[in-house]
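Q:
Got a chain?
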Amino acid sequence: MSVRKLKPITPAQRFTVVNGFDALTTDRPEKSLLAPKKRTGGRNNKGKMTARHIGGGHKKRYRIIDFKRNKFGVEAEVKSIEYDPNRSAFIALVEYTDGEKRYIVAQSGLKVGQKISSGEGVAPEVGNALYLSQIPLGTIISCIELVPGRGAVIARSAGAFAQLMARDGKFATVKMPSGETRMVLVTCLAAIGVVSNSDHQLLVAGKAGRSRWLGRRPRTRPVAMNPVDHPMGGGEGRASGGHPRSRNGIPAKGYRTRSKTKSSNKFIIERRKK
């Protein structure tokens, strides 16, 4: 993986840093695993805007990703590493020995021609999916389930990973990407390795138009608004805006919004750092 800094032949390209895409092997997605993706423009079923700053953007098709990795005991071969416009990580097209094709989130180091599998008795190698009960302690993992059989929900974005710290009874202790340490059932699946495209954090858009391609519309600074529009609006002259908070008055920058009575609080051993 690499990034490219563009030559400054235009004002926008002076700062632009783009992905080198040298890890990708094809630019043609598998047609049988594509689905249409409809845009809402931030509107609900009545046409009312319920989410601001959404609209426009390049047309996309959704890639159907196998987050469950539930084809146990069948080996698959990696056919290609591909770009997915719906996520920051790269995806891998795998073909099982029975002929079925699926997309999975690609781990860093996954190569075309490599054999991967999931389930019990599988070697803890990059790309394989195992139960937390069978992964060696200290292993770097990603694409982790929180509910057995429901599919991966943790550490799925580019460069994300967690670490298996300990096991005790029916729970494993996992250090999350956020720094939080929590207990997860050992019957949950996780993939071995770091999620691909770790250079994603180094990219620089360089110009406002690039945000528009991604479907993000311009955002007005709260301190430039009137008091009727935002708690940080108004004031004489160039007022700083007071305490940072959201449009509906919830404080930003460190205020904890997690419920103190949430049922999953008992699984968290150590909260993420402020």
Summary: The first strand starts at residue 3 and ends at 5. The two ends are 31 Å apart (CA to CA). The first helix runs from residue 208 to 213.
